[in-house]
């Protein structure tokens, strides 16, 4: 089973091509929408509440699937993976054992807080796409994560620049667990499924890529790379 965690203020639908490809290759895919941090209701963006509840959504979704008679007969209990893009990358890391700390501006008392999240050890691998990771800067924040990770970042990502990836690369104790690649000329939104022509314009930022980047072509490669990684790490 694979769960996909979208970015802040986003939608699960923008990862539809990844989800469809995985489903065609035998995965049960859960495209969850994070309450109060999505395109329709974004009231908890930039708050301690968002840092706390996002990882819990992952565990709640896993619980639902494994408690469903329709799915328990087809799911492998030790083969749960999470794909996270941008803030979804934070979510995946926090749900699987990362210890995050908020920034003062994210709480009413203007103080930093340790975020209380119970790790979900049913998660056995992560795919991080242009992940947001600044909440894991504290020493030892990522030492509790010891599962395979595929991390892909865009060369020209202005929203979660490369230092976000460096926090993860330096924070995971066993660096051999991380398969890491910088995607040439890719931007932050290049990991979203290609949009229809009528939605692709300069005023709609998620549809835009750096000049010369072919999102359609890239997603054929991306789908294969993610699928190969997940299949390799099924227990």
Automatic annotation (TrEMBL):
<protein>
    <submittedName>
        <fullName>Alpha/beta hydrolase</fullName>
    </submittedName>
</protein>
<dbReference type="InterPro" id="IPR000073">
    <property type="entry name" value="AB_hydrolase_1"/>
</dbReference>
<keyword id="KW-0442">Lipid degradation</keyword>
<dbReference type="GO" id="GO:0016042">
    <property type="term" value="P:lipid catabolic process"/>
</dbReference>
<keyword id="KW-0443">Lipid metabolism</keyword>
<keyword id="KW-0378">Hydrolase</keyword>
<dbReference type="GO" id="GO:0003847">
    <property type="term" value="F:1-alkyl-2-acetylglycerophosphocholine esterase activity"/>
</dbReference>
<feature type="domain" description="AB hydrolase-1">
    <location>
        <begin position="2"/>
        <end position="95"/>
    </location>
</feature>
<dbReference type="InterPro" id="IPR029058">
    <property type="entry name" value="AB_hydrolase_fold"/>
</dbReference>
<dbReference type="Pfam" id="PF00561">
    <property type="entry name" value="Abhydrolase_1"/>
</dbReference>
């Amino acid at each position: 089973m694979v769960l996909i965690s979208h970015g802040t203020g986003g939608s699960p639908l923008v990862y539809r091509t990844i989800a469809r490809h995985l489903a065609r290759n035998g995965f049960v895919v859960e495209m969850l929408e994070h309450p109060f941090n999505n395109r329709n209701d974004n009231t908890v963006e930039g708050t301690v509440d968002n840092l706390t509840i996002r990882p819990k959504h992952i565990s709640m979704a896993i619980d639902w699937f494994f408690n469903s008679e329709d799915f328990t007969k087809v799911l492998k209990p030790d083969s749960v993976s999470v794909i996270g893009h941008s803030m979804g990358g934070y979510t995946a890391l926090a749900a699987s054992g990362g210890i995050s700390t908020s920034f003062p501006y994210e709480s009413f008392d203007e103080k930093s807080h340790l975020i209380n999240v119970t790790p979900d050890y049913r998660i056995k691998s992560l795919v991080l796409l242009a992940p947001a990771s600044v909440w894991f800067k504290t020493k030892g924040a990522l030492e509790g994560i010891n599962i395979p990770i595929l991390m892909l970042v865009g060369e020209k990502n202005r929203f979660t620049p490369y230092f976000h990836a460096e926090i993860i690369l330096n924070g995971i104790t066993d660096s051999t667990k991380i398969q890491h690649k910088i995607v040439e000329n890719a931007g932050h939104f290049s990991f979203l499924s290609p949009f229809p022509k009528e939605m692709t314009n300069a005023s709609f930022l998620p549809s835009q890529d750096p000049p010369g980047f072919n999102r359609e072509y890239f997603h054929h490669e991306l789908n294969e790379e993610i699928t190969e990684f997940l299949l390799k790490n099924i227990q």
